[in-house]
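Q: A reviewer asked whether we had any structural model of the full assembly, not just the individual parts. We don't, so I'm hoping you can provide one. Inputs are below.
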Amino acid sequence: MSRSWWCEYASLPTGLAPGVRITVSAGRIHAIESGCAVPQSADVRLDGVTLPGLANAHSHAFHRALRGRTHGGGGTFWTWRQAMYAVAARLTPALYLDLARSVYAEMVLAGYTVVGEFHYVHHRPDGTAYEDPNAMGRALVQAAADAGIRLTLLDTCYLAGGLAGAGHEPLAPEQRRFGDGDVAAWAHRADARWDWIECYPDTRGPNRVRLGVAAHSVRAVPKGALGAVADVARDRRMPLHIHLSEQPAENVACADHYGCTPTELLAAEAALGPGTTVVHATHLTPTDIAALGQTETVACFCPTTERDLADGIGPARALADAGAALALGSDQHAVVDPFEELRGLESHERLISGRRGRFSPAELLQAGTSAGYRSLGWDDGGRLEVGALADFVTVGLGSARTAGCLPDQIPYAASAADVTTVVVGGETVVSGGAHRLGDVGGLLARAIAAVTGADGQHGHASRGTTDADGMTETDRRRP
Ligand SMILES: [Zn+2]
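A: Here is a predicted structure for the entire assembly that you could use as a starting point for your response.
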């Protein structure tokens, strides 16, 4: 059965067009007609600007529980990480299902239609496997299905606690649940996903979930194992993601131990290429930039996270000029707003270059849509054209934020709150600015309270003082 929508404006590969009818059949775009002044009787009317679905190429869903709770004591990326470990320690498959469902619902409300979950909380807190060794991964798949978002489950190899000049350190107690012991055990567990992913019915399984792999970073995965993870990705034809040079300390440790940069280490392990996405890519040398460009590696920037964690500003324009593709992610979800990420990519460049228009509107939209889809293994999505996945997002033109802006410049004005309609695979998930699950704020509040120990009442946790680890008094009182 086909369905049809009439768009006041739609962002097509050829540019913005007025009066566009989109017909969808079997979850894909069957026809696109432009120049349609008025809708036909069966069309769903979409006032405003309809964009291709937006891709969140880098997510750790549980980090959402830290939003607005880590700003009391200053600190650095490394002190924030301690607060993050405290949340990770409390997750169970059931708690993670509730939390991820609400976080993914927030993403769809904001206009994201696909998410890449960089998933490393695999085991029980003491590092022993659950009865189902992929119980946490299953929870994420279920959460995405409930929230109506496509998911690429990037199963992450995490073997070491850190890197120093003397070499890799063992996992700290709070990191034990991330590790599989060695790369063969990781691959064995990650491969087991093929057995159950097929169990999901068509509309919720293979059509909405794809598999990928990740190596956490050169801090957490030694040379040799990095190459083995890259081999798994190549053998299984799955995307490979890895955090790269987010902090200068990673570069220093890599230089001390290996005598090269993290990018050079990945190149030596044959881990770069169009199927690889490096996340953050903040502190790079000119040689690194050239290597990432020549291999057409994807660089995923997470501007709202990078500014929140005081990471720095990565060389996005230089990477694009060198040949790298750019994608965008919200990472720790201090902000879930794809338009803020698009603007962040451009505005950070403006701040360091003293020039406006470092990226064209089309380049920004491509980073937020088709390039992100491709980075996550969905080469068939992120654009409004016949045959593509029927994922699209409508942004209203009449809100307090968007009123008066030119329709083709709406990404520079809109916020997540201006998204009125989200369609994923031809299925309406958000309509009239409301998610089909109902009160997403309420879902988030309950799920976050359950993993932080707060009571879920408005403002309760935020009234507590936070220490240098960004933990509240409530957190500290927990056993
Ligand atoms: Zn990350």
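A: Points you may want to mention in the reply: The first helix runs from residue 77 to 90. The chain has 17 helices and 18 strands.
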